[in-house]
Amino acid sequence: MITSKKLLKQKKIIHGFFNRNGGKSSGAYRSLNCGLGSNDKVSNVKKNLKIVKNKIGKDIKNIFLLHQIHSNKFVFINKNYNFLKKKIKADAIITNQKKIPIAILTADCVPILLYESKKNMIAAIHAGWKGAFKGIIKKVINFMIKKGCKKNNIIAAIGPCISQANYNVKEDFQKKFIKKDKNNKFFFKKKKDIIYFDLPNFVKYQLKLNKITNIDTINIDTFIRKNNFFSARQSLRLKHDDYGRNISIIMIN
Asked: What is the pTM assigned to this prediction?
């Protein structure tokens, strides 16, 4: 389990970014695959989620997960939330409730964990390029502010994700970003006629645009095999049909 130094100092929460170590799955999913949306055995994924839950705390509710759709939609868990609802289609979770572990799954996209210390509110964001482009970060922060949070009290941890060096994109992708904001050109570089996109720094830029300055970036590239993370792009390169998912989790004690 990898932690953020900034979040680790906050005693009212517990959090972690997990790679593929320490689980029950085998083959392409070896070993801590937490993606129920993958083609892995459901029984193995459930065992893996239990392992993660036990790392966070023994006597807590099941991990709250979403049906992620690369959107700018989020869900807020308050004291009246109905946990019997079917899985919500969204890409971020916000809560001010204790002992509810919230988590998102990634396999190259950016996991972001937020904590506001005065209101004791947390959020977990799945920021792929689509969600980040559509403004999911802004929407989550604005909601937290509406609930009384202050921007200068928010700590943001950007977790392991694909680096620019391994994220090649097409020209129309680049044009789409620059058309939206000419400053986005700084997140692209060309090398031997191949365009590379800097997703983690684009995400960091979105946080800064929304006046979040207390940011911790965990610079671990999920694409690099020795780092032992699930990576959609690495799986594609290896011609695998599917891939496992890494879990990033946060909870108010």
From this structure: 0.97
